[in-house]
Amino acid sequence: QRQFVESGGGLVQAGGSLRLSCTASGGSFSFRSVGWYRQAPGKQRELVARITKDGKTNYAEFDKGRFTISRDNARSTVYLQMNNLEPEDTAGYYCNYFINPGAWGQGTQVTVSS
After folding, report:
1. In angstroms, rounded to a whole number, what is the distance separating the alpha carbons of residues 13 and 71?
2. pLDDT (tens digit per residue) in 49-82
3. Cβ atoms within 10 A of the Cβ of 94, count?
4. What helix, strand, coil percent values describe the chain, rounded to 5?
5. What is the distance, to the nearest Å, from the Cα of residue 79 to the centroid of all Cα atoms in its chain?
């Protein structure tokens, strides 16, 4: 059973929006900080945003106020609302625990055309 299942990616034009979802299994979700990460071809995986168990958030500089991370502990799900997408946001997007991450899921692909 996969620990994280990401969804919501797709192909959008620059300036468009997407809402990503990631559902965790295993029972410890509500007690842990969770992050959204992305990895573009030929590049290292990087943190996009994270949210603590209490809902405090942090964002990477490149978010520029365009992304919003949120969580629903009752559903063991974390969301990433992405607005005003740019071609540079094209990547596979993944979620995982921020501390002691588990196995990575398959991710969801986001492709932004110019």
Report:
1. 26
2. 999 999 999 999 999 899 999 999 999 999 999 9
3. 22
4. 10, 50, 40
5. 7
